[in-house]
Amino acid sequence: MSFQTGVRSRPDLVVEAADVTDVQRAITQGLPVSAQATGHGAMSSDGGVLINTARLDHVHIDPQARTAEVGAGVTWDGVVREAARHGLAPLSGTSPTVGVAGYTLGGGLSPLSRRYGYAADHVLSVDIVLPSGEHRRVSADDEDLFWALRGAGRSFGVVTSLRFKLFPVDRILGGSLTFDPARFPEVLQHYRKWTDEVPDDLTSALALTNFPDSPGMPPPLRGRKVLRVVVVGGEEPALEPLRRIGVLEDTVRAMRYADIAAVFAEPTTPHGFQGDAVVATDLDPAAAADFADLFDPGAEHAMFLVVHHLGGAMATPPTPANAVGHRDARFLVRATTPVVYPAAAGLGALHSTMIEKLGRGSKRRMLNFLFGDAPQQAATCYDPADHRRLTELKRRIDPTNLIRPARGI
Q1: The pLDDT value given to residue 2
Q2: Cβ-based neighbour number of residue 182 at 10 Å
Q3: Burial degree of 174 (CB within 10 A; 0-12, 13-18, 19+)
């Protein structure tokens, strides 16, 4: 079962791979191939082979080398727990149930990314079954493929395991500052200015959310509208400019990094969702006033609008370089709505209009933040020269387009 229940797929064959040999057999059937572990980014499709990698679930932590080697079916909660036993942390996402492989191959935006970079920047090797059926461990010696896998890796084969760096992070500042949601345009303006000055070890996101008064919503949130800034890292003095503008609730505290998922409180139960996101070099706070009606608790659908502060170490390409795009972006602006299948008509256009206005017309996107059946293609996620290089490599490695992930090259 996919975590994303808002779209439906009808493959001809589903293979629950227990080992590399199962993956190789599935690929050599001659049918189009896609793979998933948790299905957070699943899209509707018909036909072909769907390889479920959830049973490839090994986790090995080397505390001396500060590395982890994990199977393609592992989710972040398992890696975070094991690394924490040694005072280490991976560049995990905000949700503990997201699969490590898909997240990392698409770039990987972590609460630690302003300090250390994208998760893809710290991959040491990738084990992959190529369209030919060959199982290969790819590292820096294989320059072109290693470059492509770290940022566009789902298009070139089926990954069976990853090896990546861990970081000496045990305790960290984490929590949220809650504001009056009626002040959203004002708070957004303050937030935009505040991010100009914060240190690289402080990651934050501003989120405006409405929860309709309906039976499907959690009782404590039903009929509410919430505006908050989530922060991870940094030091207390860096938060004072935000606190001075009027905080209704302050939950920021020192905590274990292993517990950081509780700060974001991402849903862990499979559900349907539709959304879109753009990366932008700047924000237009004046556009925020145009969205007030969409965040009325009386509206039919819940709406989540989140502005992530990027930059820091993410702005610097790693050595060796990888395919992660748009490193000049300062913000990721995303909108998400929980939906049932099929998604409500017009939601996709509504999301795109909202985030593109707030992002000053940007149409550049990030691969891991294309949700549901939104029509945006992978080309929007990369710089043009990099996309051409990826396309040429895809033609060499997979001339018949056997590997067909959602929004692939």
Answers
A1: 75
A2: 11
A3: buried
277 touches 369 (CB < 8 A): yes
Whole-number mean pLDDT of the chain? 89
At residue 177, the 3 state secondary structure works out as strand
Structural domain that includes position 40:
13-52
Are residues 213 and 255 part of one domain?
yes
Residues 258 and 344 in one domain: yes
What does the pLDDT read at residue 93?
Answer: 93
What CA–CA distance (Å, rounded) separates 384 from 382? 6
Q: Model pTM? A: 0.93
**What H or E segment, with its residue span, contains residue 336?**
strand 331-338
168-182: average pLDDT: 96
Does residue 394 belong to any structural domain of this protein?
no
Q: Please check whether residues 35 and 97 belong to one and the same domain.
A: no
- Per-residue pLDDT of 136-149, as tens digits, reads 999 999 999 999 99
Statement to judge: residues 209 and 325 lie in one domain: yes
CA dist 60 and 211 (Å) reads: 40
* Identity of residue 202: L
> Is 257 part of any domain?
yes
| Structure confidence at residue 29 (pLDDT) | 87
Give the count of domains, the chain. 3
Task: Name 162's Cβ contacts closer than 8 Å, sequence gap at least 6.
Answer: 69, 70, 72, 100, 101, 104, 123, 125, 126, 127
On whether both 177 and 267 belong to a single domain, the answer is yes
> What is the spatial distance between Cα 171 and Cα 373, in angstroms, rounded to a whole number?
38
Which of 149, 168, 187 marks a domain boundary? 168
The set of residues, in sequence order, having a beta carbon less than 8 Å from that of 271 and lying 6+ positions away, is: 3, 4, 5, 6, 338
Judge if 95 and 223 occupy the same domain.
no
Same domain, 33 and 96: no
**One domain for residues 272 and 306:** yes
CA distances from 315 to 110, 311, 331, 382, 392 (A): 14, 5, 11, 14, 25
Q: Residue 225: which pLDDT band, with cuts at 50, 70 and 90? A: confident
Q: What is the pLDDT of residues 64-73, one digit of tens each?
A: 999 999 999 9
* Contact present, 102 and 73 (Cβ < 8 Å): no
Give the model's pLDDT for residue 344. Answer: 64
For residues 224 and 299, is the Cβ–Cβ distance under 8 A? no
